[in-house]
Every structure is written in structure tokens, then in C-alpha cells.
Specification:
The protein is mainly α and 237 residues long. The chain contains 7 helices and 2 strands. The chain has one domain. α1 runs antiparallel to α6, α2 crosses α3 and α3 packs across α6.
Length: 237
């Protein structure tokens, strides 16, 4: 019985904190890349700087912050490259960092450094929505009434900020390489945590009810926003 509970606890931990974030991040990143391609096709090569300058800055700051938290050495930070000078790797911004492969903590950090833009921008999306348009969190019950009592300027500001931030959520091949370097250590940590939690709680399903459902909804909201932006930018082409 205890073995089954521990097994279920580990499975919930892996599903909620590894599989869902990875799948959602890949889907959002793919959609964001498509949106940027549509914008460039319509408005030219400098379109990403115009429409996602804030998202790019937050993207790179997220990488840098997570690198510092996990003890990496920051070699160089470029929050936004010169839009009038072509970057060799076609980057909008970048963070160069170094770490010791023998340091397990720093190696684990690679997973979070790679996904940092997704995590940070998702959090910012929630905070901005709470401040400017909190009714949106109740759209399932309010329906079209989410627009009632909200000044138009707040909705416009919300839309501009969310659009700009969301277009900065694409994960580069270098970011995914970072994720791969730390994923096995992260998986091991989740197994250990799941083992401990499984011995403490009476029902492993509480992990989903208490944390998993909310986090999944957050990922789905961001995925929905990315899909809408991709469809709108596709129409513009």
C-alpha cells in the first residue's frame, strides 16, 4: 500500500513539475516563433524589436537571474541587441554564462536557466492580469461580463504588455541545450521529493488538487494567449 502511494506521488510530481512544463514550453515557444515570423513577413526584419522589445529584455533578465541563483558566472549580458546591426546568430539579446560541470548544483541550474523566460514571463502575466484585469481569472463564470467595470485604457495597456511579453517567450536551441544538461538531475530531485511526500500525505491525488490543477491552468492560459497571437499575426500576413 505504501509502495503504491509513493509511486503515485512520484508520478504526480514528474507530471506536474516536469512533463507539463516541458510540453507547454515547447508548444508556446513554437507558437511564439511562428508569430515572430509572421510579423517579420508583414513588417520587416526589425518587427521583433518593435513588438517584443520588453519581452526580450525580461527574457534575458530571467536567464541572468536564474544563472546567479544557481551560482553560475555571468560573462556577458546583452538585454537587447542593436536593431540596426545584424547579429551573427540572429539574436535579439543573449546571456553568456559559465559553470563547473563537476558542480551538481550548477548543473541542475541549467534546467531552470533554460526555461527561465517561460517561468518568469508566466509569473509576470499573472501579476499584470491581477493588477489590470483581475476579472479575467473568473471568465468561466463571468463570460462576456469580464469587460464590465474595466476601463478601456486598462484593457489596452494589458493587451500591449501581454503581447510584448508573450512574444519574448520563444526558447532558443541554446536554451533547450541548457535544459537537457540539467534535466536528469532535476528528474532525480523530483523522484526524491515525491518519495518523501508519498510517505507523508494520505492521498497522492492531493498533489494535483493542491498544486497541479492551478499550475496547469496557468500554462493553459499562456498557451491560449500564444495561440491567439499566432492566429492574429497569421491574418496580418
Amino acid at each position: 500500500m505504501i509502495g503504491t502511494m509513493i509511486g503515485h506521488s512520484i508520478m504526480w510530481m514528474i507530471l506536474i513539475f516536469l512533463i507539463i512544463p516541458i510540453v507547454a514550453s515547447y508548444a508556446i515557444s513554437w507558437l511564439t516563433t511562428k508569430s515572430q515570423q509572421h510579423l517579420m513577413a508583414r513588417f520587416g526584419q526589425r518587427a521583433p524589436f518593435i513588438f517584443s522589445w520588453l519581452g526580450t529584455i525580461v527574457h534575458e533578465l530571467a536567464h541572468a537571474l536564474m544563472a546567479v541563483l544557481f551560482g553560475h558566472h555571468i560573462d556577458k549580458v546583452v538585454l537587447l541587441t542593436n536593431p540596426f546591426k545584424q547579429d551573427e546568430a540572429q539574436r535579439l539579446g543573449y546571456v553568456k554564462h559559465s559553470w563547473r560541470s563537476t558542480n551538481l548544483y550548477q548543473r541542475l541550474g541549467n534546467f531552470f536557466i533554460g526555461l527561465a523566460p517561460m517561468l518568469v514571463i508566466t509569473l509576470l502575466t499573472g501579476v499584470i492580469t491581477q493588477v489590470l484585469w483581475s476579472q479575467l481569472f473568473q471568465i468561466q463564470t463571468l463570460g462576456w461580463r469580464v469587460f464590465i467595470g474595466v476601463p478601456v485604457w486598462q484593457i489596452v495597456v494589458w493587451l500591449c504588455l501581454i503581447l510584448n511579453l508573450n512574444l519574448g517567450m520563444n526558447i532558443s536551441s541554446a536554451d533547450w541545450q541548457n535544459v537537457r544538461q540539467g534535466i536528469m538531475l532535476y528528474l532525480a530531485c523530483l523522484v526524491i521529493i515525491g518519495l518523501i511526500v508519498g510517505m507523508i500525505i494520505s492521498d497522492p491525488a492531493l498533489i494535483w488538487d493542491g498544486v497541479g490543477l492551478w499550475l496547469t491552468m496557468v500554462w493553459l492560459i499562456n498557451l491560449g494567449i500564444s495561440l491567439v497571437i499566432t492566429l492574429v499575426t497569421r491574418i496580418l500576413v
